[in-house]
Amino acid sequence: MASEEDLRTGLSQPWTSIGLDAGEMSLDGPTYEPHTHPRTMGSMPRFLGHYVRGEHLMPLEAAIRKITSLPAQREHLEGRGLLKPGYFADITIFDPAVIIDHATFTKPDQLSEGIDYTIVNGRVEFDPGKLTGAAAGRILRGRGWQPATD
Predict the structure, then answer these.
(1) By C-alpha distance, which of 123, 56, 137 is closest to 96?
(2) What is the pLDDT of residue 105?
(3) Which residues of 136-150 are buried (b: 16+ CB within 10 A; e: fewer)?
């Protein structure tokens, strides 16, 4: 929908944050979906590896803010986006010299490289090379959410 030049311009603005609208995808088993968009597995690694490290669009610290605290603040997600006491521990430990996406439209389920651990709500979900079986995620609802009335 946007040219590469437009994408780089948008990503480089200090006020833009990055989120992901892809659904969660199982890597195997009965809920595995082989035909999804590559962004499901590679958006943030692509941003960090290609645009931040490769294209030098911004310092790594600015990029981390753009995918953590800035979207959490924009969406008013209380207790998210920063590492501080009382906040949920949502952490990805990665090697900034290695991180890169491998997902493509023909093979969208390819894991990215350079991610060591993913911790969700304080529980390790991804341990080098494998899922742990933990299911610590939960639905996040913004200020405007109201339960359905029947």
Answers:
(1) 56
(2) 87
(3) eeeeeeeeeeeeeee
